[in-house]
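User: Predict the structure for this protein chain, please.
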Amino acid sequence: MRFKPLTFIICIAIPLLVGGLAAFLTSDSMELFEAMNQPPLSPPGILFPIVWSILYTLMGIASYLVITSGNPSGEIQAAMMVYGIQLLFNFLWSIIFFNLEWYWFAFIWLLMLWALIYLTKHLFSMISKTAGYLMVPYLLWVAFAGYLNFGIAILN
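Assistant: Here is the predicted structure, written as structure tokens:
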């Protein structure tokens, strides 16, 4: 497989832009998060943009590996469709949780997001084992976010 720099940049830019737009639309989210009653193990707010930037970059690399894999286009399209849907769910979770402050609904939404990430990881793995592995940190972080979301829903 020949490296395609423009495709690589676009693949990384898409999730970073989605995350950046969500951060912009929830600009007071870290202040809100810090003011909430939080469950044990809640990290400091400054950690979230760092972790999300890394995760969005890993997602972008994974999507690049899938897109450039040379697999049949139907397999790639199916995997990328689910990837796109999970990105949309990721984006909307921030709005639901921070802007609307619907913590219980956000928790249910996050469970659906986790399932979509798992499905994306599975579909990516069928095309590229490395792409599948690159989705694991995201899956784990969203599981931890589920714990935090649940705890916040109970405590607030």
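The CA atoms of residues 37 and 155 lie 6 Å apart.
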